[in-house]
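Incident log, structure service

09:12 report received: a user says their structure output differs between two submissions of the same chain.
09:20 pulled the input from the user's history:
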Amino acid sequence: MYAMERVKGKESWKKLIEKKLYAYHRKRGPAIKWRNGGKSWYDNGFPYEKIEDECFCATFARVSSVKIELHSFSDSPAICYKNGTKEWYRHDKLHRINGPAIVYLNGDEEWYFMGQRHRREGPAVTYGNKQYFFECGEFVKFNHLN
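09:34 re-ran on a clean worker, output below:
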């Protein structure tokens, strides 16, 4: 359940995560909007920053007051380039559990696990009709006769 509240020039969105416990959260837009135009982004209570320019849109998780990392929230890409390429990150490393970490507009894809090309049940890299197999970042020669 979600709740929106307006108090003294601040509009905030929250998500019920436990009985009587709400966390700042909003999927499509900032969780907090200030009267002066400022915005704060949250996913399940975790703050992050969103940066957009003419080339891409990216989300960064705030790890401390001085460090931010590329990070995907709610299985949304961390970076969306204007050319259609989408990239998923976890703590600054290319990573996605149930899908490719890089998807190109033409359908090409690359699977990553914690920053390394990796996929056990199929090719980790697909470019057109070419397939390349990797496990833990190491190229694996595929023998289709076995």
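09:41 both user submissions now match this output. Likely a transient worker issue. Closing.
09:42 reviewer note: The chain is about 0% helix and 50% strand. The CA atoms of residues 60 and 70 lie 4 Å apart.
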